[in-house]
Amino acid sequence: MAEKTNCECCINYVYNDELGYYECLMDLDEDEMNRFLNYSFDNCPYFRFGDDYMIVRKQN
Q1: Helix H or strand E segment including 31
Q2: What is the DSSP string of 21-52?
Q3: Rounded to two decimals, what is the model's pTM?
C-alpha cells in the first residue's frame, strides 16, 4: 500500500500571496500535476516534512 502524504505538512507546499492560494514549489510533470490537483498524490517523491524545530536546530 502506498504511503499517504499530506501536502499541508510538506515544506514545499507554500502560500502564494500574489495569487492567494497554496502551491507546490516543486517542478511537477504533467502526470504529477494531475495527481496533485485531484488530491491523489500518494507517496510523493518530493515530500519533506515541514518541521520548524528541525530548521531551528540547524541554525544553532
Answers
A1: helix 30-37
A2: EEEE-S---HHHHHHHHTT--TT-TT--B--H
A3: 0.65
What does each of the 60 residues of the chain score in pLDDT, given as a tens digit?
Answer: 345 567 888 899 899 999 999 999 999 999 988 888 887 777 788 888 876 665 555 555
Helix and strand numbers, DSSP H then E, in the chain: 2, 2
Nearest alpha-carbon partner for 14 in 43, 48, 57: 48
Encoded amino acid at 43, one letter: N
* Ramachandran region, residue 20 (left: φ > 0; alpha: ψ -120 to 50; beta: rest): left
Quote the CA–CA distance of 30 and 21 in Å, as a whole number: 20
